[in-house]
Design brief:
With 235 residues, the protein is an all-alpha fold. Helices cover 74% and strands 0% of the residues.
Length: 235
């Protein structure tokens, strides 16, 4: 299937993210658990005080391994939200720059460049590239709840029914993690409608939630890239 350069760049980074997610699977934890289990079974066949001590040591090793794994996995899963938002934002910026090369009229909405910047530019094309980038970032201001209406106005179609909600949920959770230490606020909970979380609770990214976001991001990018491609052909 034909894809934009923006998509190919996103796909490469997205693939690495998915590979990282697989590392969150408790392979090492399972290995340690199996080793400890075997040690315990061997010691249970004996009944000396030294054996009891060995069993306690084995259990302590297992507990430490579990605690360390859980801490690392929890932190990594929380910050996956930050990485996902960064990848989507970068993809859209590249894609919008792409369509701006096909339709200069879009740049009418861009802010004027500073006079000093105009005088410093090495060429007209450099200025155009800067205007395209500025326009793209201006178009992305406000997050998903603004992106989708703007893309729709430009002609984008084919988004799944819950696309906007998934992206906004990801965006809001990312902001909560980066700017609020992941502590749930009343405003956040009002939008997400999650009765299991109360104001002041620490919002954590579960494996299921991460998979839900990933699928939403993939659906969004697939549909948007078809729009970018058609826009380029039509112009």
């Amino acid at each position: 299937m034909t894809r934009t350069d923006a998509y190919r760049n996103f796909e490469a980074n997205f693939g690495e993210l998915l590979a990282t997610m697989k590392l969150l699977m408790p392979v090492e934890l399972q290995r340690v658990t199996t080793t400890v289990e075997k040690r315990i079974h061997r010691q249970l066949n004996k009944s000396t005080p030294s054996n009891v001590k060995a069993i306690r040591t084995a259990v302590s090793d297992l507990t430490s391994a579990v605690d360390e794994y859980v801490r690392g996995r929890t932190m990594l899963q929380d910050w996956m939200a930050v990485v996902l938002v960064t990848l989507v934002h970068a993809y859209l910026e590249d894609g919008l720059i792409f369509i701006a090369t096909k339709n200069r009229k879009l740049l009418r909405a861009a802010d004027s460049l500073d006079n000093d910047r105009v005088l410093e530019a090495a060429s007209i094309e450099e200025l155009r590239a800067e205007l395209r980038k500025q326009w793209a970032n201006k178009t992305l201001f406000g997050g998903p709840e603004k992106w989708l209406p703007r893309l729709h106005k430009m002609g984008a179609r084919g988004y799944k029914k819950d696309c906007a909600f998934r992206l906004q949920h990801l965006w809001d959770t990312r902001n909560l993690i980066v700017h609020g230490r992941g502590i749930a606020t009343t405003a956040y909970l009002r939008k997400q409608k999650n009765p299991s979380v109360k104001p002041g609770d620490r919002v954590r990214v579960s494996t299921g939630l991460l998979a839900w976001w990933v699928q939403g991001v993939q659906d969004f990018v697939d549909a948007t890239d078809q729009f970018f491609l058609r826009y380029g052909v039509q112009m």
